[in-house]
Amino acid sequence: MRCDLHVHSVHSGMCTLPALKGLCRESYSPPEAVYNVLRRRGMNLVTLTDHDSIDGAEALRSRPDFFLSEEVTCTAPSGAELHVGVYGITERQHLELQRRRTDLPRFVAYMGEERLFAAVNHPFSALTGRRRADDYEHFRRFRGLEVLNAHLPRTNNRLAERLATRESQVAVGGSDAHTVESAGSAWTEVPGARSPGEYLAGLRRGRGRVAGRSGTYSKLTRDVLRIAAALMREKRWTCALAPLLVAVPLFTLANLAIEHAFARKWGHLIIEGTAQPEFATRNLPAEDFVA
């Protein structure tokens, strides 16, 4: 069975970029449209990983091939932000995860108690801001690691794959789609699974296989333009900003350069070992690891 384990809908909230905060949504994709596109593109199962929200599930919860998930914005002890995909949850578990997301040890301990499968998304991306070398120690607390994100360059994904292999973490993949056009461009497959429960059990056992495509400059540029067009349809007055769209290719080119620089820096420090990070269990209490 295949499932895109990282996909957004209109329920992901407002954009967090300073210039767009409070103006533009992260995604304008209706949950039903995301579902239909994923099924057409060969996904046997469907989930949504909206930012700190499960509201999109209301339209899909009656479908037997849908399971509830979310992308939780967590805070590491350093103050750094990380995005964690948590899969196969209930509404009660969503509320408890949100209560604990700013206290990473409590967050991880709760997931262990509930036997939830979770993966750190885009570990070598600049998307979540500043990073310290010891933040990567905390990534290891999670059973899974996203090694294929269809909006990130191949270099960033390969570094994540190397880290997952070194730390014996389960590799997962997803499109990170904020538009319906990008949904299903990467996924995680569990051979032999016949239901959402069997699929999630297979992930926990490390039987998942990732497939799909890494991101490109042209793909990111198209998606940013699609989101801008959706903003203008929702808020007609923003059509006055249309001339600014000529700068979008420069914006996405700058973003690509930032991602490559981030990957070079942290790949050198963490993967090549210059920083000599100690990924040792003695530094982290055993009860803080997700089973």
Name the shape in a single word: globular
Tally the structural domains.
1
Biggest beta-sheet profile: 5 strands, mixed
| Helix and strand pattern | EHEEHHEHEHEEHEHH
Written overview of the protein:
This protein has 291 residues and is of the alpha/beta class. It has one domain: Metal-dependent hydrolases (TIM Barrel), CATH 3.20.20.140. The chain is built from 8 helices and 8 strands; from the N terminus they run βαββααβαβαββαβαα. The protein has helices spanning 31-40, 91-100, 104-114, 135-139, 154-166, 196-204, 217-234, 248-271; strands at residues 2-3, 69-75, 81-87, 117-120, 144-149, 170-174, 186-189, 209-212. The chain has a 5-stranded mixed β-sheet. Helix 5 (154-166) runs parallel beside helix 8 (248-271). The longest helix is centred in the C-terminal third of the chain and has 24 residues, at 248-271. The chain is globular.
List its traits.
3-stranded antiparallel β-sheet; 291 residues; TIM Barrel; alpha/beta; 8 helices
The gist of it:
The protein has 291 residues and is α/β, with parallel strands linked by helices. It contains eight helices and eight strands, in the order βαββααβαβαββαβαα.
